[in-house]
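Quick question, first post here. What does this chain look like in 3D?
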Amino acid sequence: MVAAESSADQRLKVGPLPTQLSPSVRRFDFTLITDSRWQLVAKELVLAMLAPRHQTVAPLPRAFRNPLHVTSCCGRLDELVRFFNWLGERATSSLQQVTTRDCEAYLAHRRYVLDDDGAVIGENSHATRRSAAQVVVDLVNYRDLFTTDRVPAGLRPWGGATASAVAEMPSGRDENKTQPVADEIMQPMLAAALYLMSTLGPHAVDLANKIRESDRHSARRAQGLRRVGPKNRVPVLELSEILAEYTRTCTALPMLEDHYVAKRLDKGWAEDDPLLLVAMGTLARRAGLSQFCHPWLPTMRPALEDTLAQVGVERPFGRDADMVPAADGTSSLPWTLPVSRLQAVALVGIVRTAAIITAAAISGMRASELMELRIGCRRPPDEAVPGLTRYRIASKIVKGQPLGGTDDEWVVIEPVYRAIELLEQLHDAPAEGALLIGRFSFNVRFKWFKNWANSEAGQRLGLAPIPGGPVNLRMLRRTLSLEMAYRPGGVLATKIHMKHIAVATTEGYASRPGGAQAELLAEVNKHESERNLQLVLEEFRNYQEGVLPAGPGARSLTEFFAGIDDQLAAASGTAPKAQRNDRDVLNLLTKRANVLHLGPANYCWFTDPSRALCLKLAGTPTADRPLIGMCDSARCPQATHHPGHRPVWAEHADRAKIFIGQLGATRKTERTRLQADYDQPSGSSPRSTPPVQPWTRSPHENLRSPAHREREPHPGRHGPPPSRRDPARRKMRHQDPRPRSGRRPHRVLRHPPLRSPPP
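> Answer (accepted):
Ran it through. Tokens below.
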């Protein structure tokens, strides 16, 4: 709803509006434009952008069809003020006199930053230049709407290009400008926030209640206090009674705030005065008096000093604090030391900030959505199945929605639900429907939170220091998007949870190059390639140490490693001073790393799709990727087993053995079949092709799978003569009978078998 005030004020108020908008954005001030005709032009333009479907605005061919946000309209008005006043300084009396040269001059005026002498010292941002160009474009597009003054009909600045093109705005294909929070900052920050929320939260609620209770009885304007002044008699009886109560209960006298102590010293109090730190005003209000007048001090000093000597003086809040475990788990200690009222209020604020950080970092809500949270926004937990509880909180979506936002709900995890509950308990006036957080500055709150965690108070509780670095709500939202999107089905889940309108927005959040699903997958593939390179390098180093792979594809992989080893040796021989590093080896291994696919218990070297057993079984021999879920590594000629796979096979074999042992006596057929499958290493049974066997033959015989060794005769008894052996094996055996210098000879892997030997 838009309502104009009196013509004398000439301001325009807009409402109702989101909580996030500050008062300066809520009010459109047109009085800053000196020309009264241009004031009306600005009003007509802003109203047309707020109400694009009005009957006078809708027929315009180049007008906006969707209403602009109030913040955008406020920015357009600010730029209009600059443009119109700039025209006035150039002695331009009418918009009819504006030419293309004037438009270019204004853009240059807003493009460069000048010093006091008029020299160019820098350039403004692309957004500033776009705002300058957009003002001129708007005056051209809405020309027929204006009643008092308008630009010439034939004005086409910059050849009709858009404001973004004129300002040379980036295309959006570059890296996302909002970076995620660094891990070295995120971990200690979130750990401190969760600790304060869960461990100190209940104690902070009690402290906040005590502060409110103390303010009701000890404030200067509290109800029921007797107004007194310096000319009144000294209330000896009232003050003596309250001092006697402190003595009887052994309660320390309240300590004065530090800034009041400084004021007393400025007024001439001695630093060694025993009453310097005593908050006598608090004592007077406890006695029912509005204040403690300074002329009363000589009369009451003996009684005050006597009570002080017996009970002492201490800060009023946090005395006898409960014990809590430290954040590092090393000890138990009081959750707070005695604090003054201002320190107590600050401590409650730190716990409130911890709850805000937890809710923002784990829910991913925007600042506008957090500010719209209200008392009672927590929905009752929904336990769909036993042990699985779903938590929801209600707020409003402001971005991209009509004025005032749209009601919506967020499904969150329990820590967020508890953080909202803690914020409700810490609220000063928890009335139903009241704003829970209101408009706040996260940057300021996080700065206080970090300083407190790094101070003596935070270190006393065992909190890890939070290093310096930027943290804001957008970065927290981006960090959560990355964590969610890199999981199976994560892009869609992130879109739903983050309330994005289009999947492209989610892809921009989840991909650092930003903006498209293909770029997200490219980044994932980049990480996979780096991981595969490291795995291949590790296996190559194992080969050099004599640790050879097993499985049907082991022969091909070992021959490949032997070829790489020969290339490195030949290069070292021709260049004696050359030193081969990991980068040189990785360059040679890159091609093989590109065809590596990881299985749960084997590696798949997908070099030839026609040889892939999984594609033959699936009937897709021309596919470009293996079906790793259908891999039968006992028979596929491109599968290999390595020492890292042995725990998987051993665990599978143990489970199969336990399952066979649990079969009843009547299930003889199943037992016989499963036992035979377990004992014979054939097919794809749990016992088939264990990754490492206790081989004692030559290392090259390790390349043969156990199934092949069962089917083929022993080479020493019935094998072919040496002259007819496989050429590749003959070459590997005879090409270099002695180990090269600087490298140990191949050693044979010896591991215990997967099952115990028969009795």
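Residues 1-9, 511-517, 681-759 have pLDDT under 50 and may be disordered.
Residues 184 and 656 are 44 Å apart (CA to CA).
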